[in-house]
Amino acid sequence: MPAIATRFLWVTLLFVAGAAIAVGSASMDPVRNDTCADPGALSLDRFPGVEDVREDPESAQRERMIQHERGIYRTVQDGRRRARFEVQINRSWEPRTLYERPSRWVKGLENAEHHDLDADASGVPTHYISNHTTGSGRVAAYTFVYGNRNTESPFGVQIRNGWEELRHGKQPLTMITVAASIRPRHEEEWRREARKWLGEAVAYYRSVCGE
Question: DSSP secondary-structure letter at 172?
Fold first, then answer.
């Protein structure tokens, strides 16, 4: 084999080996880059109308979460509190933990029967899951924020941003959820309220994290 070809082969092998080591190192101990300007302000009790916030540190540690909190939001109409919604925020350095099976994070909807997406919900891509096996059932709506941007498909964004993440660090995925137990005939009304709260929650997120 000519000397030039041999030299080129060795350079190529060294480059491939170096790239493999870099990728392997990144997967074992990835650089992390939380692009939110003020992550501390994402505590659920600072979100619009949320109260009775509870943290779940054991689950957060087990699932390598940055944050795992639940709370209560009550709608207000004519100055009176009405429906009671359960709200939740999960943030993770492992996006797949959240987007692979989102229903596992919603109590009573671990095996949800129905799942659909409203990509035009006031600019906030909103996923709905429900389970109406009896006269009343569980429903939930959630949205994803990857880095500081809303997305309907975290997996797609992760693939597109793969090279940037290797260069600048891994970004967290945030899942914001609102859930309730309702009768099927009230689901449309509930969806309107859920979209409204999710829109306010995402607006708050952007206000503290930046666009």
Answer: P
All residues at 6 or more sequence positions from 189 whose CB lies less than 8 Å from its CB, including other chains: none
What is the CA 89 to chain-centroid distance, rounded? 8
How many residues are there in the chain? 211
Let me know: does 107 contact 167? Beta carbons within 8 Å. no
DSSP structural state of residue 101: S
Decide: 93 and 29 in contact? Cβ < 8 Å.
Answer: no
152-172 per-position pLDDT tens digit: 888 888 788 777 777 777 888
Q: Which tens digit of pLDDT belongs to each residue from 98-124?
A: 998 888 888 888 777 678 888 665 678
Q: Can you tell me the distance from the alpha carbon of 101 to that of 160, in angstroms, rounded to the nearest whole number? A: 21
Instruction: Report whether 149 contacts 165 (CB < 8 A).
Output: no
Helix (H) / strand (E) element for 168: namely helix 162-168
> 180 with 86: CB under 8 angstroms?
yes
